[in-house]
Amino acid sequence: MGLTGKLVAAIEFKAGGDVYHEMFRHKPHHISIASPARVHRFDLHEGELGHAGSIISWTYTHDGKQKIAKQLIQTINEEKKLIEFKMLEGDLMEEYKDFLITLHVETKDNIDLVTWTLEYETLNEDVGHPISLLAFFIELTKDIETHHAGN
């Protein structure tokens, strides 16, 4: 039996939260331009960009290794600027039974926050928590901010 967990990171984003949400919703193929060391490729397998029910995949480098993630865009809530990516296949699924990645952009006290939430169930108790993956998303957010804000 595996362990379930939830990791959350909220990162201030100075380039405008709308920019971040729009990039992941409508221009995910541009993410590799903003963060070429981390994200190498985006593919749309089924559906349409920016629509729930679409199946996508990413080629990325995490922990020094090139990896692949195939995901279902499970939910898009435009009002809340929220997107849920349910893992279907790929390297993560070698250790996790279920994996849901939620991206949420919100503004609090005139500060835009990008929040990444990882919800998961490991295949067994020997699998660690995906803390380095959460760090990957934090660094990806910083890369995109630098790309858009020119910091």
Multimeric status of the protein: single chain
Sheet with the most strands: spatial strand order: 1-7-6-5-4-3-2
Proportion in β-strands:
over 45%
Helix content: 10-25%
End-to-end separation: 46 Å
Described by the principal axes of the CA atoms, the overall outline is: globular
Number of strand elements? 7
Count of individual helical segments: 3
Give the helix/strand class.
Answer: alpha+beta
What does the main sheet amount to? 7 strands, antiparallel
Our Rg estimate from Cα atoms comes to 15 Å
What is the H/E string?
A: EHHEEEEEEH
Average pLDDT value?
95
Low-confidence stretches: none
Can you describe this structure?
Pfam families: Bet_v_1. This is Bet v I/Major latex protein domain-containing protein. This protein has about 150 residues and is an alpha+beta fold. It has 3 helices and 7 strands, in the order E-H-H-E-E-E-E-E-E-H. It has helices at about 15-25, 30-35, 130-150, and strands at about 5-10, 40-45, 55-60, 65-75, 80-90, 95-110, 110-120. It has a 7-stranded antiparallel β-sheet with strand order 1-7-6-5-4-3-2. Strand 5 and strand 6 (about 95-110) form a beta hairpin. The chain is globular and about 45 Å long. The protein starts with a strand and ends with a helix. The mean pLDDT is about 95.
Topology:
Layout: E1 4-12, H1 17-26, H2 31-34, E2 39-46, E3 55-62, E4 65-77, E5 82-90, E6 96-108, E7 111-122, H3 131-149
Antiparallel strand pairs: 1-7, 2-3, 3-4, 4-5, 5-6, 6-7
